[in-house]
Amino acid sequence: MLSRARAGRPAKLVALSVGWLLLVGAQGTGRPPNPILYMTGTEHYTTGGKDWVRHRFDVLNKDEYPADMFAPAPGLPPCGSNANSSRSWVDFFDSRGKRLYGFCALGGPDMLGSIWFATEEGTVPPSYVYIEINDRQTNTKYRSNLADTTM
Amino acid sequence: MHIFRSAALALAAIAGIAGASSPAAAQATRTWVSGVGDDLNPCSRTAPCKTFAGAISKTAASGEINCLDPGGFGTVTITKSLAIVCDGIGGSVLASGTNGIVVNAGPTDKVLLSGLDIHGGGTGLNGVRVLRAESVVIRNSIIQAFSTPGSRGISVEGPAAVTVAGTAIVNNTTGLSGQVISAGDNLLAGNGSDGQFASTKASQ
Q1: Tell me: the pLDDT tens digits for B145-191?
Q2: Do A104 and A73 lie in a common domain?
Q3: Alpha helices, H only, chain B
Q4: How far apart are the first and last CA of chain A?
Q5: Would you tell me how many other CB atoms lie within 10 Å of the CB of residue B74?
Q6: Nearest CA of chain B to the CA of A14: how many Å?
Q7: Together in a domain, A125 and A105
Q8: Model-level pTM?
Q9: How many structural domains comprise chain B?
Q10: Are residues A150 and B96, on separate chains, in Cβ contact within 8 Å?
C-alpha cells in the first residue's frame, strides 16, 4: 500500500508540472483575458431637459490590458468625425445583445475603470449588461461576464 | 360593392381576432424579486424579477411584491395601492444621489413597505418620500445614511396618513419631516435632527 502511494507521487508531480506548463503557455500567448465587469454605482444628472441615470462600471482586470490597445489609431476607420479614435473600442450590450452605448476614444486601459451607460430616469435598465472590447487592429473581441445593474 | 364590403368585413374580423389573441400585459397579484432575477422575467416565483421598479409594472393594483432572497432591488416610485414585503429576507434599496422609495399614488391608494433596508449611501435625497396616498405604512425597516444637506429619512410632502412601526431611522440629516405617526418600537438615532412624530397610536 505504502509502495503504491510512493509510486503515485512521480505521476502526480508530472501532472502538476504539465498543468503549470499549460498555464504558463496560455499566459505566454500574449492574449489579454476577457474583461471582468462589475458595477460601481449610479449617478443622477440632467441634460437636454431630461433626467438621466448614469450606471457606472469598472473592469477588475483592466491592468492586464496593454496600453497600446488603446492608443490613437489614425490608420483605422474613424469614430464619427474623430479620426484619432483608439485602436480598441468598448461597447455595452444588454443580455440579449442589444447595443446600449460605446466608447471609441478611451485613452488607456485605466479608463476601463470609469465606463458607463445611461438610461432615462424612470426607465428600468436592463438587469444585466456585458461589454465587448473590440481590438480593431487584430480584429479580436474580448467579451465580459454579465454584470448586475443594481447594488 | 358587395365584394368590397365582404372583404372589409373579413379584414375587420381578422383584425379583431389578431387583437384578441395579442398577448395582454397581465399583472399578477403577487410578484417576486431576487438578487439573481431578471426584469425580463414575469416576476413569478420561479422566474423572479431583479428590481422593484421592474416588478411594479407586472404587479396588479393592491398586489404585493415579495423578496425571495437578500439583494439590492433598486429605487422605485409607487403609483398605486401596493405592498412590498421582504420581512426576514433583507430587501435592500440603495439610493445614492436619489430618493429611495417615492409614493405618488392616488388619493384612495394604500401602500405598505415592510422588511426593507433603505440606504442613502451618504448621498441619497430622501429614504421614503411621500407625495400622495390615502395611507402609507412603513414597518420593520431601516432607513439610513441619507446624510447630504436637506436629506431626510422620511419626508411627507403631501396628503397621506403615514404610519411607522418597528423601524430604525438612523444617521440621516433629518430623520422625519412632515406628519408621521408612530405606531411604536421605532428608533430615531444618529440623525442631525431627529424630527418628531406627529402623534403616537397603538401598535399595528
Answers
A1: 999 999 999 999 999 999 999 999 999 999 999 999 999 999 999 99
A2: yes
A3: 2-21, 52-56
A4: 54
A5: 25
A6: 41
A7: yes
A8: 0.82
A9: 1
A10: no
